[in-house]
């Protein structure tokens, strides 16, 4: 099974509704590596790394989000190991500061 890294941008009502905590819980339960953070434009940004089918399933879940969110758009691009390395050393999945 091949490993992939995906960079995901989620827009809609995704801040102030527990979206980041939901992403972290979902990704951790799936055994994914990566990070999530808010962006000043109101979107949420995430990087997921792991088996291709598991990452794809996480992206499908991001299109729904937690019940309090309203997801309008999910943009998915190839991620890089440099993006993945933005998390702290030893972290499997991390919250990063808002940018």
From TrEMBL:
Would you say which domain of life the source belongs to? Bacteria
Q: Where is the Acylphosphatase-like domain?
A: 5-97
Query: Which residues constitute the signal peptide according to the record?
Result: none
Q: Which Pfam families match?
A: Acylphosphatase
Q: Which UniProt keywords apply?
A: Hydrolase
- Write down the chemical reaction(s) this protein catalyses: an acyl phosphate + H2O = a carboxylate + phosphate + H(+)
User: Has UniProt tagged this entry with the keyword Hydrolase?
Assistant: yes
InterPro entries this protein is in?
A: Acylphosphatase, Acylphosphatase-like_dom, Acylphosphatase-like_dom_sf, Acylphosphatase_CS
**EC number assigned by the record:** 3.6.1.7
Catalytic site: 20, 38
So what family is this one in?
Answer: Belongs to the acylphosphatase family.
Listed name of the protein: acylphosphatase
Taxonomy of the source species:
Bacteria, Pseudomonadati, Pseudomonadota, Alphaproteobacteria, Hyphomicrobiales
């Amino acid at each position: 099974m091949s490993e992939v890294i995906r960079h995901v941008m989620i827009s809609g009502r995704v801040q102030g509704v527990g979206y980041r905590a939901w992403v972290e819980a979902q990704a951790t339960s799936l055994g994914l590596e990566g990070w999530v953070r808010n962006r000043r434009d109101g979107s949420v940004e995430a990087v997921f790394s792991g088996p291709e089918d598991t990452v794809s399933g996480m992206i499908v879940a991001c299109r729904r989000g937690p019940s309090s969110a309203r997801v309008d758009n999910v943009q998915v691009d190839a991620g890089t190991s440099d993006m993945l390395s933005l998390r702290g050393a030893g972290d499997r999945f991390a919250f990063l500061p808002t940018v």
